Amino acid sequence: MRPVLKLTSCLCLLTVCCSLTLPVLGEEKSRWEHKKNYEKMIVEPTLPVATDVPDRILLSWKQDPARSFSVTWRSKAGADAVAEIAPAETGPQFVKQARLIPGETSPLKTNLGTVHMHAATFEDLKPNTLYVYRVGSRRTVPLSKADQEDVEPLTAEYAWSEWIQYRTAQESEGDVVAPVSFVYVGDAQNDVKSHWSRLIRESYRDAPRMTFMLHAGDLVNHGNHDQEWGEWFYAGSGIFSAIPQLAVPGNHEYARDPFAEKPEGEESLPKTLSRRWGQRFEFPDNGPKGSTENIFYVDVQGVRIIGLDSNREIEAQTEWLKKVLSNNPNRWTILTHHHPIYSSSVKRDNPELRKTWQRLYEKYHVDLVLQGHDHSYGRTGPISLQLSRQLETEENVATGLRVADQSGGPVYVVSVSGPKMYELKQYPAEAIQTDPFRRRTQGKQLYQVITVEQDRLVYQAKTVTGKLYDQFTITKDKAGKNVFEDQAPPVEE
Ligand SMILES: [Fe+2]
């Protein structure tokens, strides 16, 4: 090639590159800005398509986690569904031991057509034992004659999931309990497939042997939009069917049900808890009368996990909460609800929760309160109301909180796992002693790994990239008194 031609070629190439690069860079910016408006995000329309083959399989606990577990799944057809379970073996021969149980089926009308939800509970299991299970839904599209003759009758009748492994929880031996570890996440809510997938998968890579996962509400943005649940299950595929999931509803799980009948005398449909919630999650039926998997407690390996619904009927849950807290044989108590006792973001205060529930948390020595809703991160030390002088104000209780640390009280956390971010509430410099949070940040997607041993609780918050952002340890002495140690690493907030 002659030099002139070479130069001309280079210029041409440069021009082409610029014309390709500059608009793309410009587009990136506007695309990001557009994402601020999450309400208008478009979700994948193919994710909701249901077939005969079980999908959206979710494992949870309805009964004693050492002796039972429950599964829900979905298929298109409304015919019967079944599940099978066997103790795991080192090869495929375990199938000979498989026990078949019936599932329960209920229809679910969605904005994308009617599907069917199925649920099954495996009972009479042995503690700390590895099982394999699978779920099946009756075929509505029959196999070809040749295939039917070629497979066992159960496969001819039912479309099955893969075999999935799960180890039951351990039972306490006297006062000795096995360690529990779990991942807790705040709101996933928006762009769940696009932006939350990497977070939930990173958390799984980080703690693959976790005992369970906990979601503190606003799992999706529109509780009745089926495609958003499709994104949630896509993000957690292979995880939600193998690790028990616990969750409490956020305000976004409450929505107007387009298929509900308008109550007499009402001008419009009221917002109600998405019907999917009760069909999807199988939590213990031990909440106040009328609750539907939105209020419950689970005891696992010396830890009582209590889930409350902070969206409504706060007072009505208080009597139940008192009973559950006062009659608690577990060494550790962890509580979760969506709206925070102390808000980390601007103009999102919830004084009613402090006035009703917080006193009980302290009276009955709750160790940790895990929350969401604020789309930022805030973590307190142990906080006691006793030393606060501003209990009845409309603002966050603040004065004297740092002083109160040593008097005990729960540690409160607000966290966010999805991409929607809110501005952090700023405290004036002179009020540094009144800021309830010891660690707080905005603009970061976070997950938390919490390990609870006999006498020690270790809490870690990690960024979506797997980097340690926050840490503390609570040590419980023989009398049950907590000693708190802040171990937050020196990183930029
Ligand atoms: Fe929320």
Automatic annotation (TrEMBL):
<dbReference type="InterPro" id="IPR004843">
    <property type="entry name" value="Calcineurin-like_PHP"/>
</dbReference>
<dbReference type="GO" id="GO:0004035">
    <property type="term" value="F:alkaline phosphatase activity"/>
</dbReference>
<dbReference type="Pfam" id="PF16656">
    <property type="entry name" value="Pur_ac_phosph_N"/>
</dbReference>
<dbReference type="InterPro" id="IPR039331">
    <property type="entry name" value="PAPs-like"/>
</dbReference>
<feature type="signal peptide">
    <location>
        <begin position="1"/>
        <end position="26"/>
    </location>
</feature>
<dbReference type="InterPro" id="IPR008963">
    <property type="entry name" value="Purple_acid_Pase-like_N"/>
</dbReference>
<feature type="domain" description="Calcineurin-like phosphoesterase">
    <location>
        <begin position="205"/>
        <end position="377"/>
    </location>
</feature>
<feature type="domain" description="Purple acid phosphatase N-terminal">
    <location>
        <begin position="54"/>
        <end position="168"/>
    </location>
</feature>
<keyword id="KW-0378">Hydrolase</keyword>
<dbReference type="GO" id="GO:0003993">
    <property type="term" value="F:acid phosphatase activity"/>
</dbReference>
<keyword id="KW-0732">Signal</keyword>
<dbReference type="GO" id="GO:0046872">
    <property type="term" value="F:metal ion binding"/>
</dbReference>
<dbReference type="Pfam" id="PF00149">
    <property type="entry name" value="Metallophos"/>
</dbReference>
<protein>
    <submittedName>
        <fullName>Alkaline phosphatase</fullName>
        <ecNumber>3.1.3.1</ecNumber>
    </submittedName>
</protein>
<dbReference type="InterPro" id="IPR015914">
    <property type="entry name" value="PAPs_N"/>
</dbReference>
<dbReference type="InterPro" id="IPR029052">
    <property type="entry name" value="Metallo-depent_PP-like"/>
</dbReference>
